[in-house]
Amino acid sequence: MTSKGILFVMSGASGVGKGSIHREVLARVPDIKLSISATTRPRRSGEVDGRDYFFISPSEFETKIKNNEFLEYAQVYSNMYGTLKSEVVHTLHSGYDVLLEIDIQGARQVREKMPQGVFIFIQPPSLGALVERIHGRGLDSQQSIQDRLDACHAEMSMARYYDYVVINDRLEDAIKKVEAIIIAERCRVKYY
Questions:
Q1: For residue 80, which phi and psi values (nearest 5 degrees)?
Q2: In this structure, how many other beta carbons lie within 10 angstroms of the beta carbon of residue 49?
Q3: For residue 125, which phi and psi values (nearest 5 degrees)?
Q4: How far is Cα 34 from Cα 53, in angstroms, rounded to an integer?
Q5: Could you tell me how far CA 14 lies from the centroid of its own chain?
Q6: Which pLDDT score, from 0 to 100, does residue 134 have?
Q7: pLDDT: which is higher, 30 or 77
Q8: Are strands 79-84 and 70-76 parallel, antiparallel or unpaired?
Q9: What stretch of H or E contains 10?
Q10: Could you tell me which residue, 157 or 168, shows the higher pLDDT?
Q11: What's 49's DSSP letter?
Q12: By CB neighbour count within 10 A (0-12 exposed, 13-18 middle, 19+ buried), where does 111 fall?
């Protein structure tokens, strides 16, 4: 562990497997913590406030925007999501790496504010595979699925703005690639 942590930002199209990858990476890689996002979306069954998200009201979210408390925030499919600056900075200064799993809009804002971060784009092997994954989750309404697919083409073109692209064709391979990126970045001379 270096004296100051490294910010890793992982994003990609909805349904590409970011959640599955980040859970395994957190279980396997020491000294890295997930940044918990704040959201105005309703809590899904089994989700816990402060573990999965900080669930806050739209008015609370607006107050935090006005007070410049977010590292990034965005409206995604009619809900607001944001990363609290204080949480990320505190964790980094404690010597831990931080993994942000956020949408593409948020990653763009983070790159502007913290360009020293390491940006990882998770990509599906094909658009057809992504469609199957979104339908297979069974979490989204038909309208939500259509909204996600409509946004997918634009999101996929954003990969060129990242430091790394990991194609999630086999989950275990994608996890190992993200682990390898983290290990390699920790070995860079600039952190010593």
A1: -100, 140
A2: 11
A3: -65, -25
A4: 11
A5: 10
A6: 67
A7: 30
A8: antiparallel
A9: strand 7-12
A10: 168
A11: B
A12: middle
What's the pLDDT at 170? 94
Measured CA to CA, the distance from residue 99 to residue 19 in angstroms comes to: 11
The answer to whether residues 95 and 5 touch, using CB atoms and an 8 Å cutoff, is yes
Domains present along the chain, CATH in parentheses: 7-187 (3.40.50.300)
Between CA 175 and CA 18 the distance in angstroms is 10
Q: Distance (Å, rounded) from C-alpha 3 to C-alpha 6?
A: 10
Under 8 Å between Cβ of 151 and 4: no
Adjacency order of strands within the sheet including 118-123: 32-34, 97-101, 7-12, 118-123, 164-167
**Helix or strand run (H / E) with residue 34:** strand 32-34
List all residues 6 or more positions away from 112 whose beta carbon is below 8 Å from its beta carbon. Answer: none
pTM confidence score: 0.82
Give pLDDT tens digits for 31-78: 999 999 899 999 999 999 999 899 999 999 999 999 999 999 988 778
Mean pLDDT of the chain: 89
Average pLDDT over residues 79-100: 94
Q: Where are the beta strands (DSSP E) in 40-181?
A: 54-55, 70-76, 79-84, 97-101, 118-123, 164-167
Map tokens 């954003």 to a residue. Answer: 158
